[in-house]
Design goal:
The chain is mostly helical. It has one domain. Helix content is 76%, strand content 0%. It is built from 13 helices and no strands. α4 packs across α9, α5 runs antiparallel to α12 and α5 runs parallel beside α13. It starts with a helix and ends in a 6-residue tail after the last helix.
Length: 298
């Protein structure tokens, strides 16, 4: 282990909140960056250049922290990299490509609930009563958004887009569960996963018929996504958790991101906020709060 890995973190709640708010502020912008870049690029083009940016940045951050890439974990990295970023972001960007940004954002934000459902299945335990209540509330919000308020119908405006958004929550939850048993340091693991993913994405892009040639706006947008969705922001969030005296406070900051994202989407992307989104997203957030509140009956 490196000296950096052996250091005991110094608790500093002010620093933790600063890092956490910085991460949330950056994450709040990425939904707009996705949508704007996807106006000029395909999902695979955006993902390739974003993953390339993230891989480079994460390696630089890793060595700046005095850490090295694990030498014996490349097989694990190959498997994890195919799940996330390859499968996860292809599904997520496909959802953003087909749906209004506000809808893809809100549906994808339900991933903590999917994580709970899958964790219960893997661990063969029954969900708590509040988990069931949270699920009902969250998926009521998703149904409202997916049907754009016509909740009594079975008609989705874009079923493929909704399916991609929901599938992204499954893949993200699966990668999270698998990551819990990953012995690699978090930043090193993420860097390895992206390093493995880049050549895979290059092959997919080369065979997709879309080509590597993109304009400067796409390169700029992809670099922004790679830096602030996949790379730097993740490190800021880890720093926030590392320095937190009360990690629950930091975790609650994440609920600010989708709300701020809606206003940025309205201002930057120009999407009018749909009544179904303004009803559905609060339902999703309420469900997640119910699921994560301390105490309660099992």
């Amino acid at each position: 282990m490196t000296a950096a890995a052996n250091q005991t973190p110094v608790r500093n709640q002010r620093k933790a909140i600063t890092c956490g708010l910085s991460a949330v502020a950056l994450w709040a912008t990425v939904a707009s960056a996705f949508k704007l870049t996807l106006r000029e690029a395909t999902p695979i083009q955006l993902l390739f250049y974003a993953a390339l940016t993230s891989a480079v940045l994460l390696v630089v951050i890793l060595f700046a922290r005095g850490e090295a890439l694990p030498r014996k974990s490349w097989l694990r990295a190959a498997v994890m990299g195919l799940v996330n970023p390859v499968a996860y972001y292809l599904l997520l960007f496909s959802a953003y490509h087909r749906l209004p940004a506000q809808e893809a954002l809100a549906i994808n934000y339900s991933w903590p609930l999917m994580l709970m459902v899958m964790a219960c299945a893997v661990e063969r335990r029954r969900p708590r009563s509040r988990d069931i209540a949270a699920g009902v509330i969250c998926y009521a919000g998703i149904w409202c958004i997916a049907t754009r308020g016509d909740v009594l119908s079975l008609c989705f405006t874009d079923p493929i887009g909704v399916g991609c958004a929901l599938a992204s929550t499954v893949v993200w939850a699966a990668s999270w569960i698998a990551g819990r048993s990953d012995p690699r340091p978090p930043v090193a693991a993420l860097a390895q996963n992206f390093i493995v993913a880049v050549p895979v994405l290059a092959v997919v892009l080369a065979t997709s018929g879309h080509g590597f040639a993109v304009g400067a706006p796409v390169l700029a947008g992809s670099a922004y996504v790679g830096a602030f969705e996949m790379g730097v922001t993740f490190v800021l969030w880890l720093m926030a958790l590392r320095h937190a005296e009360n990690p629950a406070v930091i975790g609650n900051l994440s609920f600010l991101a989708p709300v701020a994202s809606l206003f940025i989407i309205r201002l930057v992307v120009g999407e009018p906020l749909q009544p179904s989104t303004l009803i559905g997203l609060p339902l999703i957030i309420t469900g997640l709060v119910v699921q994560n509140r301390p105490g309660g009956r099992r």
